[in-house]
Design goal:
single chain; mainly beta; 6-stranded mixed β-sheet; 4-stranded antiparallel β-sheet; 2 helices
Length: 557
Amino acid sequence: MKKTTITLLNAMLAAVFLFGCTKDKGNYNYKELNIPTITADLEKVDRNVFITADSIDLNQNDSLKVKLKVSQAMGTASDFDYQWLVIQYVASNPNPSSYIIGNAPELITKVIIPPNLYRLVVKLTDKITGVAHFKHFALNVSAAPWGNEGWVVLQDQAIDGTADISVITTRDGSLKGKVYDNVYSLFNHHKLPKGTYKVNIINHATATRAQKVSFFYPNGGLEVRNTDFADSAKAESWFFVAPNAMNFQLNGSAGGSSSGWEYLINNNQISYRQVSATSLKIPPIYFNPPFLGSFTLSPFVINSANSDSYFTLYDKNSRCFFLYRIETSAFVPILPDVPNQHFLKYTGSPADLHPTTGSGFDLNNMKHDLIYAENAQPMTSSNGYWNCFFKNDNRDSTFLVQFQRSTAYTNNFKTGRYFLKEANCPGINSATLFAVPTFLPLPGGAFYYVNKNTIYTCNVKNLATSTAKAGLTFPVGTVIKVMKTFNSGYAAVNIPSTEGRVLMVATDETASGGGNTVYFFKLNSTGDIMGSPSNPADQYTGFEKITDVVFKKGLGR
């Protein structure tokens, strides 16, 4: 029996071997995988938009048309279902809120997503097999010409008292720009509210490509899209709980830190929100309730790009500074909120505080009203200098206090206070506007101020020896509406060579038969104003009544 079993097993192994060696006759039906080759049909697209077959470049709100060529071994283009998507180009950026933009073989759409670099993806799904195939295009969306770099000019409208904006597409007047008028109403089909008095540009950390444009008007405010000025959000929706009264005074951000703190002063109280790469992915981003204390704030925030969560603020009632750190919601140093005691006691000598022979100052007791504050170095500078202008109650004495912004103050300033005597600085006690260049050696330097139809240049010197001279004189009756030095907001690597070296002036010259004009003047190496109203570096006319002007930088720089 055992022998029979072994014989049978050997026979079976021989049969398996025999069949295994038999040649495959090929009696099988194979089906090749249907892999299409997908390209753009460059004969059916705008070659001004398609830079290459795989790269698209256009402006926001432009129309985009993409027709495909689908080459395949079997079937035709109609054998597929289509889906067109726009997604982020890099993982750190958020996807657009609406990223599915089409489901037909040919894409015809209007590109309304914010300017950035994206991927345009078309997904083809085989209707029989269900297999999906993808084609990627690089999609660069730029701002409209009036939504990129330039000066935003806010104006009252003569007909109905509403407001609108023009944009001058120049940086510093060195190259002639184009003027786009009424760009807000052209896009939104209505004007800005009556009495709109301020336009703000808030630049957040460069890598976020985030920029906010806001307007203030009586009892309210409005945010618009930074690339085309389309309505975005009214002030009621800026907060977790809207304030009872809206009297907006200041909206800004240091802009350089990835922390991304933005501040808003309303009714002499400060609120803030964090606009960072993380928070941008989970909108909406609300302002916190106002920070309340013993103080009533002047509408100025002294900050720096390298640590934008530290705010040096001024209590106009008790006439003292205090330092507040947003991240910890605490005073620096950590002291009780007692007026005139937010810093340690002044450690200089009484002689340093003498009103005429000393030049020191006590952060706890400044004695006068803060009427203006501006950075005296580019905002890319680490804890740069600020100029703070004060006037006494009688408005017959004006002081400049200049100090380096910090994240902690020892309160021992022995220098930095300058008495601006009317005899040496004509019209300083009735000055209406101030502006500060950001390229001169500090402490000291220079500043500009307006009295009636004249702009003066003041050279800062110790104690009461500062002197001023007329730099520009406009026709009698001219109202100088706005005066600013060119502070771009660009990151240090992209900062222009003309940063702080150009003076922008907006005027109302209707009393002398002129119009409403925006001028640009160059500043020389010592801070003197070059040219004259009849011979400026650059000039733009034809505006309605100008109420505010602000520079808007390009995104991502």
